[in-house]
Amino acid sequence: MRRMNIILIIITVTFSSVRSQTQNLSPRYILENDNDVVSVSSSPLLPQPLMIPLTLIHGAVSKGAVCLDGTLPGYHFHPGSGSGANSWLIQLEGGGWSNTIRSCVFRKTTRRGSSKYMEKQLPFTGILSNKAEQNPDFFNWNRVKVRYCDGASFSGDSQNEAAQLQFRGQKIWLAAMEELMSRGMKNANQALLSGCSAGGLASILHCDEFQSLFPKSTKVKCLSDAGFFLDATDVSGGHTLRNLFGGVVNLQEVQKNLPKSCLSHLDPTSCFFPQNLIDHVQTPLFLLNAAYDAWQFQESLAPHSADPHGSWNNCKSNHANCNSSQIQILQNFRNQMLNDIKGFSTTSQSGLFINSCFAHCQSERQDTWFADDSPLLNNLPIAVAIGNWFFDRQVVKAIDCAYPCDNTCHNLVFK
Length: 415
Ligand SMILES: *[C@@H]1O[C@H](CO)[C@@H](O)[C@H](O)[C@H]1NC(C)=O
What we know:
- This protein is α/β, with parallel strands linked by helices.
- The chain has one domain: Rossmann fold (3-Layer(aba) Sandwich), CATH 3.40.50.1820.
- It contains 15 helices and 16 strands.
- Strand 13 and strand 14 form a beta hairpin.
- It is globular and about 55 Å long.
- The model is unreliable at about 1-45 (pLDDT under 50).
- Bound molecules: 2-acetamido-2-deoxy-beta-D-glucopyranose (NAG).
- Its main location: secreted.
């Protein structure tokens, strides 16, 4: 049996205490806390992963590049070696968004809004692993995880003095790139910008800017993992995610940094949705996404606010509990995703891996990135498909058949 369901045990006390402080953040916080996944399901089976210390960007304050609370931004860096010495992988960290003064003020008291609370070291697993048997193509590259502490996918530029909030995502992005260029990235002969979730959206938003840092001779591509957030209608007919994104864009003045080519025909909030961005990206881009993305299912399609009586709760916690009408709504969600990538999929440089799983962030975790039983499409694990695309070994436009045909998924199950 290839199938393996990851059981996520969520401690109710943690859940409700976070929820009481901010309704927007709690499920997201738990879903994106990879440490929970690792500690519950994987760590007894795996050797200790490589731990990489946090580096703060000391020159950042003079550039105005600070976290929500004014503290220094940071990153984790493991140098490349051998054939990877001049290759660079940048991963932009994810972790939801803050769309109101209140949720941003709360975020200042977390690692997502202040480097005071960031882990002093992080495990480098999956696409960040330094072992060839865990990460066949990128293991010996220079690998960097840039921490997320602005709440707007590294794209805002504003402030709120009354609430003592700095919205400097765009400046953090630039300061991080400047620092990494000075640490050797300027000599890169190949580079990949990646990121998951809010970081996967950031990798789409910054893809062409990343490419423009390098001379034409450098091979530059971008990977968005679980960053393809649909402008979806929720189960009560509302637009939960559009409302959230609208708040982020307006509060943090994201429109300053959205592509003019999109703003010329759509409103700024629409231009924060990948479906309206991907056709404007000139640099080769790979979309890795679960067709039934677990975060979007829980927070965009069937969020608590759209289902106050909780009739979706059982289905949300485990897809095996969904009835036929709920499955149909999930199939419609997948169909919308496939429809939104239609034009993109026909371009020669694009890459796709859209598997029919209930997952979120499949490149950071070892079990989904590259392992004996990791998810497959056309018989290829994610790590091999993305390597084949990056190195032009193969055209990769892998789209799964609809649920329940895939028995290689590592579905997230919430208890
Ligand atoms: C599926 O469950 C939902 C929510 O409980 C309910 O409204 C709907 O009628 C059910 N559909 C079927 C076909 O049982």
